[in-house]
Amino acid sequence: MPGGGTLSVGLRGKGEQAVIEFLNTGAAVHKDHLESLTEPFFSTKQGKRGLGLSWARKIVEEHGGKLEVGNAREGGVSAVIQLG
Description:
Layout (H helix, E strand, L loop, with lengths): L6 E8 L2 E8 L27 H11 L3 E6 L5 E7 L1
Antiparallel strand pairs: 1-2, 2-4, 3-4
């Protein structure tokens, strides 16, 4: 969030699942980039390698979970991890 903002983290149970949600109030992601966010080496920033979200997705998947990243309804970006 280069322009500033707030990062919120929430945890809830959903049956046998744990759901962790990260929500920021920074800028939303352009719709053309949403599907590529967790791909290795994808970045919209000059000179960046774009490995963080791809590693996060791999770690979550290796633990039997799922990572979904998208634009939040309120603005900003949402990342949801489902485990269990």
